[in-house]
Design goal:
Elements lengths: L1 E6 L4 H11 L4 E7 L8 H4 L16 H5 L4 E4 L5 H5 L2 H6 L1 E4 L9 H8 L13 E2 L2 H9 L3 E3 L3 H15 L9 E6 L14 H4 L4 E2 L8 H12 L6 E6 L6 E8 L6 H12 L5 E3 L17 E8 L4 E8 L3 H15 L16
Length: 346
């Protein structure tokens, strides 16, 4: 049994980790860390856990926690994990960090886009970017995982096969993304209140969103070239879900069958990536509550561009589900354990 500790257990991603791990046959949660709710019963914070979780919330003392568990999930704001991580902790337990602290290899890029000083840059090189479909073998050997962000997971997986095969002109890539409000976290913000979000859709973080360099870096590894993209996120009035629509010029004319064969080459054996049938567009409602990513594409022969589309649940594959998938790989158990969730509808 894998002994688990969660720091940030009362945020949306932390709460989703608890939900998923409750159904995991090989894991047991020993520590529900939440600085905001110390000594409060976890089930009083999330009433869906009434008579399911009897534990009280504890603090975020990672050094004490490292002595008690096999893996720590840090579902915390940017900067926390980097500020407390040290070699002694890593020598005792594995870390899966759901923040951006170890996702970007260039510390100066991280500090520029996140506006904070990185407190433990010595671990950046070691950290493995936890996109399981791309870095599976490295994840198996890792002790520190940088769990990818929600926008980035969907954006990267949707374009990855074509970037890797050199099919698209990476200098033309545009990513238009839309997210449900849970992606902004559980903290109180005026812009996320019901009256502000309902019956509305808006772009935000235009040309400055912090996930931009993460997408660029990972697609740069795939394509073997420096990548600069236009990335525009939008907030839509729904609880969960990410939908990305990506546009790029084809380097040469291509038929549907040849592009479909490329996607199948990379994803036909992937449990959680579903390449849809021709002319079926991904929709968030068909992946909600699951760890699946639905992907498809459409060739626009008139403009010689390809339109790539992806949909997933931002709290599952975009956060907690991917973190559990990483844990399964790190401990050598079945990768899909605890994640075989049928999408919810309606």
């Amino acid at each position: 049994m894998i002994r688990v500790g969660i720091i940030g257990a009362t945020g949306y991603a932390g709460g989703e980790l608890v939900r998923l791990l409750m159904g995991h046959k090989g894991a047991e949660i020993l520590w529900y860390g939440s600085r905001s709710y110390i000594d409060k019963k976890y089930a009083d914070v999330y009433r869906n856990m009434f008579e399911l979780v009897d534990d009280k919330c504890l603090d975020d003392n990672m050094e004490e926690l490292a002595d008690q568990v096999d893996v720590i999930f840090t579902a915390t704001p940017q900067g926390f994990c980097a500020s407390v991580l040290n070699e002694e902790i890593l020598s005792k337990t594995k870390i899966i960090d759901l923040s951006a602290d170890f996702r970007i290899k260039d510390v100066s890029v991280y500090e520029k886009w996140y506006g904070i000083e990185h407190k433990s840059p010595q671990f950046i090189e070691e950290a493995v970017y936890g996109l399981c479909e791309v870095n599976r073998e490295d994840i198996k050997k890792a002790r520190l995982i940088a769990n990818p962000g929600c926008y980035t997971t969907c954006s990267i997986l949707t374009a990855y096969p074509l970037a890797k095969e050199g099919i698209i002109d990476m200098s033309t890539l545009i990513v238009d993304a839309k997210s449900g409000t849970s992606g902004a976290g559980r903290g109180t913000k005026l812009s996320n209140l019901y009256c502000e979000v309902n019956e509305n859709i808006k772009a935000y973080g235009v040309a400055v969103h912090r996930h931009t360099p993460e997408i660029e870096e990972q697609l740069g590894y795939a394509s073997g070239e420096k990548v600069l993209i236009n990335f525009t996120p939008h907030l839509v009035p729904m609880n969960r879900g990410i939908l990305v629509t990506e546009y790029a010029s084809l380097k040469k004319e291509a038929a549907y069958e040849s592009i479909k064969a490329i996607y199948d080459k990379y994803y036909k054996d992937e449990t959680f990536v579903r390449v849809l049938d021709a002319d079926v567009c991904p929709e968030t409602k068909w992946v909600e509550g699951s760890n699946y990513v639905d992907i498809n594409f459409k060739i626009d022969s008139r403009t010689n561009r390809i339109i790539m589309m992806g949909a997933m649940d931002n709290l599952v594959k975009g956060a907690a589900g991917q973190a559990v998938q990483n844990m399964n790989l790190m401990f050598g158990i079945r990768e899909s354990e605890g994640l075989e969730l049928v999408p919810m509808f309606p």
